[in-house]
Amino acid sequence: MTNWNYRQISDCVDTALSRLDFVFYFFICFDDEDGFWLNNALTLWKNIEDLVYSGKVISLGVADLGFSRVKMLNEAVVRVRPSIYHYNVGDCCEVELRNYAAEHNIYLLTHNDPNLSKLKGKVGEKIRSFLGDDQLFELGWFARYTVWDQSRSIVRSKGYILQFQKNH
């Protein structure tokens, strides 16, 4: 998600559903540089909760936020609390985070992918290398997905789904 726009999230989930059949865990990575982070996140989260109630998504989680933001969001959310925190294996899982997660039924899950909030710059670099100009297209939203064989705990498929908008 490149801005605080629920329409991007809705488009992302609908696109993922059209290709993956269902979304069990839905993680959102909020831009953490905004001074109004919690207000923006809560406004968006209220819409995201509807994805659970509509049956499009089974469970909500957050990715790459850091302990203080996970705690703020969890304690502020009213209807559907984050049940998973997806963090980069390179980041240390603080004891305080582990204890908080255990107390609040938040499942901790690691990944070794690039931080989603930094992916926009990497995509711009790739567009520039392929097309010679990174201003032709703008990244609208992107989703990281993993397809698991749960009975054998094996990752079957992993990748990204990206949506671009052509600049005029």
Automatic annotation (TrEMBL):
Q: Which UniProt keywords apply?
A: Glutathione biosynthesis
Q: Does the keyword Disulfide bond apply?
A: no
Xref: InterPro entries? Gclm, NAD(P)_OxRdtase_dom_sf
Pathway as given in its UniProt record = Sulfur metabolism; glutathione biosynthesis; glutathione from L-cysteine and L-glutamate: step 1/2
Record's superkingdom?
A: Eukaryota
Q: Spell out the molecular function terms from Gene Ontology.
A: enzyme regulator activity; glutamate-cysteine ligase catalytic subunit binding
Report the SUPFAM superfamilies cross-referenced here. Answer: NAD(P)-linked oxidoreductase
Report the GO terms under cellular component.
glutamate-cysteine ligase complex
Q: Which GO terms describe its biological process?
A: glutathione biosynthetic process
Query: What positions belong to coiled-coil segments?
Result: none
Read off the PANTHER family from this record: GLUTAMATE CYSTEINE LIGASE REGULATORY SUBUNIT (PTHR13295), GLUTAMATE--CYSTEINE LIGASE REGULATORY SUBUNIT (PTHR13295:SF4)
Binding partners and assembly = Heterodimer of a catalytic heavy chain and a regulatory light chain.
Q: Which family does it belong to?
A: Belongs to the aldo/keto reductase family. Glutamate--cysteine ligase light chain subfamily.
Protein name stated in the entry:
GCS light chain
Species in which this protein is naturally found: Syphacia muris
Upper taxonomic lineage: Eukaryota, Metazoa, Ecdysozoa, Nematoda, Chromadorea
